[in-house]
Each structure stands twice: as C-alpha cells, then as structure tokens.
C-alpha cells in the first residue's frame, strides 16, 4: 500500500483494534489517492494486513503484546491509577492485540465505528444498482449528474472522537494531526461512488450539473449520541419551523467547534464504540433544477382571477389565469409543481389587452427539460386553443437570473388603462375636457379598503402621467390613463371614501364610480418579443 508510510503503522494498528474500517483508516492517515479508496473492501483489508506484516520488524513499530508493554500506548499520563478514566475526561486505554491478522479479522466483522458503514456496505455494487434503478424509474432527462449525500449528525461526533484518539497517538510519536488534515467522509464516499454511478448511468459526474441524485442516511441506533452537546452548548441548538429536530448536522458541527476537548471526553467514549447495525437509507431522490418559462398573457374575461381565488378555504371561481397556463406546462415538462409570478396583477373583473402582461413560471423538478423553439410554439398554441378566456404570446425558456428583469424597477414602469366611468350628475363634453390637460398628477393613496386584509396600511405616492377623456353620454365617459405602475385606478376614480386624493370625483365635484377597467399595456421590454 504505497500511500501509507512507516509512521502510519501505529495509527493503522490502533484504528483496526478499535473497529474502524479500512477506508476510514486511509482517511485518518491522510491518504489522498482516490484509486486506493475504490479498491474492493476485501482487498483493502488484505492490503492493510500485508502492510502491518511487512513493517512489524521495524524499530519504531507499535507493539501490541501484553507481556511486553509498548513504548507508545494510548493513554494519558495522569490517568494512571484512575478507576474510571472516561469519567475524568480522558481517552480510554485500548485493549491490546498481539496478532495483526486477528485485528484485521475482527475489524472486518464489525460495522465501522466512525462511518457507521457508509464506506463499507454502501460502496458495493448492489447499492449502486439500487440507486441507478431509482434514477431510471424517475424518468428524468439529464446529460450529467451531481451526487449529494446527507449523513446522520452523530457521525460528526464519532469522527471527532476518532480524531482525538489518533491525535493522541500521533502526539506520542512527536507528530501532529489537524482536523482539516483528515479526508472528509463525504469526499471519500464520492471518490468511490462517482465512477460506479457514471458507468451504470452512462453519463459523467459534474459538480455543476442541474440533475441531482441524493441519498439520505440515518442511524437510529446511535441517534441520541449527540444529545449531550445540547447541554454543553445550548445556544447552538435552536428550534426551527422547518426542522423536525434541533440536532441538525450544522448545529452539531457548531457545537463541536465550541466544546472543549476535555468536556467532550467526559461525555463521549473515545474511541467510539462499534455499533451493531449499518446505516438505514431513508431515501434516494432525483431532482432536476427548476426550468423557467416566460411569456405574456392577455385576459379577456371579467370573471377570472389571476391566481386561484380562495377565501376561508372555499374556492370562489373555478379557474384562474395561473392555472389555465400552468396546467399545460406541468403536463409537458412533467414537473412536480410550479410557482407563478407576473409584472403586477389585475383584479378578477379587469381585462388585460394589448401586448399582454409579462409572466414567468418556475417548473419544479421537471422530468423533461429540452424543448426546441418549435415545440415551445406548439405548446403556446395548445394553451391558446384550450380557453377563450386567455391567450399567451412570446412563450419561451428563460434563465432564473433573467426573471429578475421582470421585477427590476417595477414601480418606475408605466401602464396604460381604459376606464368606463359613471357620474351621478349630468355632464357635457366640456366639463371633462380639462382632464386632458393635466400632466404628472401626484396622488396620495392610502392602502385601499378592499386589499387592507393582505397589504400593510401605508400612504403611497403615485403619479398619473397623462389622461385623455372620451365623452359617451350625460352620465358616462371613458378615461384613458397612463400611470405609474402600482397605481390603484379604481380608487383614483371613486376616491375610496377619501383615502385617495385627489380623485376623479373630487376633480369633477361629483360622485364617480368605475364600471369597467381594462389594462391596455404594460410598458416592459421583457420577455423578448418572438415571431409568433
């Protein structure tokens, strides 16, 4: 085993005696050769046995012969005479074995006391095939993959105990070992598993891949091993709404960084004991990164909300703009779910005309991700043929970062509207003509009563850039407005009981109300216009 040197022999012997698997031994000996980790488990055991046998006659070897005490035993000087060394916060004395073959044989029969079997059973071909079967059955489109693994938090505690053990022995040899010198378990596991998954799936592993294969491990037998840290470092463990347990891996690592070595050794055995069982696999999941689709929609119905209209758990209307568009996208992309966003929104009784309103849909974990421009055009046509209440245009795939453009400077954008207005007192055409001359009219709009249940109470300054009136009869006229985005048009007309000042009613000295409202344009240059 060329990557191990003479100085590693005492560490190899020590870790084998305490129930550590050969791959974890390589990690603690700082072996960085990926090829060695990929060797078959039985071959690694034989390699270690041969390494110990070939070096047992060296002068600076560790002798594990009870009759002839070693010069470098794993103990602390102040522990001599102590009946309960672990209670006093020190390393336990390791039982000595004078036959290296016995040490290797014993280690091979046990679940590793550090990795809990991750670098043993879960590196074998049977497990790799199980993962690949899950991937293939999920039916995702992918050309590469990134592999992630979630480990039980108590594994970090066991790794700390093993490190303290090895650090003590290396100190006896006049050497040092930093926590950062150890090859990380996840890194070693990926060295082993990546080539096997790549061969089985037929695609390369790529850290930047948009397709993730994840495995979640648990070890119920040792779940409570990190609980002592909550007493030693209570500020590291804070309840979180989305976490089932406070003992997350990050919380445990934070506590391990904070706790003193002597306090750690008072509460946890060093070396860690050998468990009876391997880890459990809680789940094997496949996930494609989200795909984003953007476009513009027109809404022609005055009885259609933009998003599902649900009050106190009761649905008020059968459908929505969001659903009429997304149901087809979900079906074609085979996505798990979606998130809809748009440049503003219109009320249920307001139409959106002209070039339409920009929107974007995030499709979560899509199975299909590759679409040509022609296929997107066909999908657009499918949506348009499915309902006479909406139409979409410029449907296209976009990046996550591109969606930010839809929200950039939202309040600086302008929108044009057409409002049909009723007045209680009769008017002539001349009575409303002055509205056409008003430019950059500043409004103070207190949060409307109709949206106060979902918007904070505030006074917002908005601007009516231009107005153009169109006389209809003595009690009706149409008003075309160009306004700052975010202006409440209905409230500008009727005043909302004086919450919007000035308003059409106050300008005309009449009671005014709005009968119909249309959005005629949303002045945004996103998404790019396509040849539809």
Automatic annotation (TrEMBL):
<dbReference type="Pfam" id="PF21237">
    <property type="entry name" value="Pus10_N_euk"/>
</dbReference>
<dbReference type="Pfam" id="PF21238">
    <property type="entry name" value="Pus10_C"/>
</dbReference>
<dbReference type="GO" id="GO:0031119">
    <property type="term" value="P:tRNA pseudouridine synthesis"/>
</dbReference>
<feature type="domain" description="Pus10-like C-terminal">
    <location>
        <begin position="292"/>
        <end position="523"/>
    </location>
</feature>
<keyword id="KW-0175">Coiled coil</keyword>
<keyword id="KW-0479">Metal-binding</keyword>
<dbReference type="GO" id="GO:0046872">
    <property type="term" value="F:metal ion binding"/>
</dbReference>
<dbReference type="GO" id="GO:0160148">
    <property type="term" value="F:tRNA pseudouridine(55) synthase activity"/>
</dbReference>
<dbReference type="GO" id="GO:0005634">
    <property type="term" value="C:nucleus"/>
</dbReference>
<keyword id="KW-0819">tRNA processing</keyword>
<keyword id="KW-0963">Cytoplasm</keyword>
<comment type="similarity">
    <text>Belongs to the pseudouridine synthase Pus10 family.</text>
</comment>
<keyword id="KW-0413">Isomerase</keyword>
<keyword id="KW-0496">Mitochondrion</keyword>
<feature type="domain" description="Pus10 N-terminal eukaryotes">
    <location>
        <begin position="112"/>
        <end position="286"/>
    </location>
</feature>
<dbReference type="InterPro" id="IPR048742">
    <property type="entry name" value="Pus10_N_euk"/>
</dbReference>
<keyword id="KW-0539">Nucleus</keyword>
<keyword id="KW-0862">Zinc</keyword>
<protein>
    <recommendedName>
        <fullName>tRNA pseudouridine synthase Pus10</fullName>
        <ecNumber>5.4.99.25</ecNumber>
    </recommendedName>
</protein>
<dbReference type="InterPro" id="IPR020103">
    <property type="entry name" value="PsdUridine_synth_cat_dom_sf"/>
</dbReference>
<dbReference type="InterPro" id="IPR048741">
    <property type="entry name" value="Pus10-like_C"/>
</dbReference>
<dbReference type="GO" id="GO:0005739">
    <property type="term" value="C:mitochondrion"/>
</dbReference>
<dbReference type="InterPro" id="IPR039894">
    <property type="entry name" value="Pus10-like"/>
</dbReference>
<dbReference type="GO" id="GO:0003723">
    <property type="term" value="F:RNA binding"/>
</dbReference>
């Amino acid at each position: 085993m060329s990557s191990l040197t003479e100085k590693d022999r005492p560490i190899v012997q020590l870790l084998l005696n305490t129930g550590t698997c050969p791959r974890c031994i390589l990690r603690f000996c700082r072996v960085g050769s990926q090829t060695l980790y990929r060797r078959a488990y039985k071959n690694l055991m034989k390699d270690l046995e041969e390494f110990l046998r070939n070096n047992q006659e060296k002068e600076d070897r560790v002798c594990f012969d009870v009759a002839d005490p070693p010069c470098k035993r794993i103990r602390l000087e102040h522990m001599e005479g102590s009946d309960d060394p672990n209670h006093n916060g020190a390393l336990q004395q390791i039982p000595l074995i004078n036959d290296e073959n016995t040490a290797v044989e014993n280690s091979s029969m046990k679940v590793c006391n550090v990795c809990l079997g991750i670098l043993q059973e879960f590196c074998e071909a049977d497990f790799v095939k199980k993962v690949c079967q899950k991937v293939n059955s999920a039916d995702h489109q992918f050309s590469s993959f990134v592999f992630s693994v979630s480990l039980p938090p108590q594994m970090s505690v066991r790794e700390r105990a093993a490190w303290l053990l090895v650090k003590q022995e290396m100190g006896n040899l006049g050497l040092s070992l930093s926590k950062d010198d150890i090859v990380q378990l996840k890194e070693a596991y990926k060295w082993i598993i990546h080539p096997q998954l790549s061969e089985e799936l037929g695609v390369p592993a790529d850290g930047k891949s948009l397709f993730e294969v994840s495995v979640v491990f648990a070890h119920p037998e040792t779940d409570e091993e990190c609980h002592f840290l909550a007493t030693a470092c209570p500020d590291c463990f804070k309840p979180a709404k989305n976490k089932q347990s406070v003992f997350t891996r990050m919380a445990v690592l934070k506590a391990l960084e904070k706790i003193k070595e002597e306090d750690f050794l008072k509460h946890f055995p060093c070396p860690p004991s050998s468990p009876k069982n391997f880890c459990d696999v809680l789940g094997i999941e496949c996930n494609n990164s989200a795909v984003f689709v953007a476009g513009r929609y027109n809404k022609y119905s005055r009885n259609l909300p933009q998003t599902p209209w649900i009050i106190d758990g009761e649905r008020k209307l059968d459908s929505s703009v969001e659903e009429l568009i997304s149901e087809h996208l979900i079906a074609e992309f085979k996505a798990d779910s979606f998130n809809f966003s748009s440049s503003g929104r219109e009320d249920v009784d307001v139409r959106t005309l002209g070039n339409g309103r920009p929107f974007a849909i995030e499709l979560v974990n899509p199975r299909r991700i590759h679409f040509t421009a022609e296929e997107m055009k066909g999908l657009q046509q499918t949506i348009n043929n499915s309902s006479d209440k909406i139409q979409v245009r410029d449907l296209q795939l976009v990046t996550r970062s591109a969606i930010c453009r839809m929200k950039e400077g939202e309040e600086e954008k302008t929108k044009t509207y057409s409002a049909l207005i009723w007045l209680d007192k009769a008017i002539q055409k001349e009575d409303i003509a002055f509205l056409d001359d008003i430019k950059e009219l500043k409004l103070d709009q207190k949060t409307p009563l109709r949206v106060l249940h979902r918007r904070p109470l505030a006074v917002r300054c908005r601007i009516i850039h231009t107005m153009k009136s169109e006389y209809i009869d003595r009690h009706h006229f149409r008003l075309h407005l160009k306004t700052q985005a975010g202006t409440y048009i209905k409230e500008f007309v009727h005043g909302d009981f004086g919450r919007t000042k000035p308003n059409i009613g106050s300008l005309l000295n009449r009671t005014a109300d709005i009968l119909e409202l249309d959005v005629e344009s949303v002045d945004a240059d996103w998404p790019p216009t396509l040849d539809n």
